[in-house]
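Changelog excerpt

This revision adds worked examples to the README so contributors can see how folded entries look when concatenated. The first example is reproduced verbatim below.
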Amino acid sequence: MLLSLFLFLAAHAGAATFDGLWTTTFGDVNLKESTAGVRGSYVMDGEMCLIDGTRDGDTLVFKYQEPSAAGEGRLRLSADGKSFDGESRPNGSSGWLPWKGTRPDAIPMETGFEGLWDTDFGRLRLGRSGDSVEGPYSYGEGRLTGKAKGRELTFRYVDVKKGQGKFTLADDGQSFDGTWKAEGEKAWKPWRGWRVRPMPYRRWLYVIEARWEHSLAEREYTYGEMLKTFFNRAPNVEVRQRFFNDRRSLTKWLREAAFLAEPVVVYISSHGEPEGVVSDDGPVGAAPIAQALQDARNVRLLHFGACDVMRGKVAEEIQTGLARRGLRFPISGFIESVDWAGSAVADETYLELVLGRDYDPVLAVEETRKLLPFTRPGTEGGPFGKIGLVLRRPEDPPSHGNLDDDAYDRMRKAAGLAPEKR
């Protein structure tokens, strides 16, 4: 036994190891590496789950046991031992789910004013350019602009009132103390903040949805409820749903995306047209959407679950507006008037690839079209009709915008698609 232990230690001296605590896509995992192999545990739905495996070079091959499932997996350790990349699958399944991990002490910590804060006046998202600092906070849909010098930030603010203030950053950069006062007042009041650190591997699906029913005679049905139930099985995906009825409520909820710490997919679900998203007070176009998202540097994808929006110039104009703020992310949606059930099938597949399988949105669109041929532009779609799932990248050239039928057919022909049947 002593000889085996000596040989194990000699073989792994100075080498990276799986041993220790990891922050992963399936929560915190504690692994113990020894001559007998690698064993570990993690918590799923409040229950202890077990890992038992063996190491082959930089790869851990293992079996896992959860309260209601069992399966297999493999993890590949990085050369510095600070992260791993791998996958797992339940017994009987041919599909693999990504499983990534990072050492807690390898997660970088921000130390300046930029970033997300929990404060006495709700969440505050600050961005910095040179010594200029600005950003929104949740109280009164407020906004702060100021100048930073060392550990001090002096600023002006606007919410339900206007005023001024000053923050002083703590030595470790993880909190600040501050004061503020409104115009016309003499007393200074406290404004404190504590940094919000992103949870590694957590992703958000943020559904902002219009009501689909037209009368009390109709049953309630929503994409958001469907997607919340669908993604309950994914431990690293958080789903939030909010409802809008007009431009004001839509932009209010879009603004909230900036107050999430981790990457977020924003999904606007409503009727649509080439001019924008349908609301009670008319179509909501590019300008108000871009303005509402101007501070949301955590957005990974904007998806329109709305008919025809991607047929117009809305996506292009949103990206142009955001580029002025240094923001770049893809925008996807439909170029057709789509069937509710068909778009539900398409969106569940597409969003599962992006959020559950960690696909780049561009690749996710391509894979969705392979898995569901009726989502390809130019196809009839069978019982679901036309879907036309498309994606616009920030670097794509200008489109033709709101097209008449002849111009639309010319664009389809240039893209190698058959003319649309009418």
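The second example, added in the same revision:
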Amino acid sequence: MKKKILIAVAVLLVIGLSLTFYFTRYMSDSKDTQELFRENVAAVGYENTIETAIPQTEIYNVIKNHFSSELPEGKTEKKAIILGYDGCRADILTQMQQENSAIAAMLAEGASISLTYCGGVNYPAPNTQDTSTAPGWCSILTGVWADVHGITGNDITKSLETKTLLTSLTEEKVIDSAAFITKWAGHFSRKNATYLLEKEYCEENSLAVSFNKCKNDKASFEATLEEIGKKDCADFIFVIYEPTDATGHNFGFSFNNPRYKEAFVTADAYGFEALSAIKERETYDKEEWLVVITSDHGGIGTGHGGESLQERMTFTVMNSEF
């Protein structure tokens, strides 16, 4: 009898969880209109508009210009970090916390906040590349769109004709070292991974570019703190946190989805700890750090890759200007 009761309770629990999942997803999808998206984006306080959004490829130039410019008086070394919030929509920034938020902390210190876009061209022109993970991050790291770097979607290996800043800056001895930190195997840890050839190239040529595959987001977060904590940490750190993307695929990319909001808060808290670790470095006062927080793409429903405004609009917060 007791066994039957336990089975019945388990069945009811599964049904309840399923109903909650589908209800949350339905409510998120049905209310996720373009009009509401525009209203929420306007409420964030971006310095530009959807119509004047900046191509995400421009982040490449910001990083490159940072390392090529002269050091300010009193500084002896340049450093840069990109904190990537994978699949983070531009409207969810209205939900940022005031405590333990990397974005809020940066804005309080005068950082710029801009709308950027993925997909090759700005909305409403038809996409020239998928609004997906591999094309988005590759466009940021190479400064060009898929018609040049060749990554039109996930599971495509990039050729060495177009190298990322991680490799080119190290190879040209502009910086001493770089670090790539992520949990997704699709970047460089499986067959057809985006940067598989580049990783092999760096290893074969003894370039100081580390490719760190972590088991989950917490491990990526810990690896970031470990790298920052090194006395001679990588000059350019590129890290991707994926709570928003994973939650979006499972429960829906939507401002209306409380799970998606929680995922954003988690990613932003990781970012906050990374910024705190940078400021705690013994050599921080002598270092000039460029900090960039950005996203590769947005999402709608439980997916992305398409042409909707919700998928194509991203954001960039940094202690510099485009």
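Reviewer comment on example two: The chain has one domain: 32-318. Residues 8-28 have pLDDT under 50 and may be disordered.
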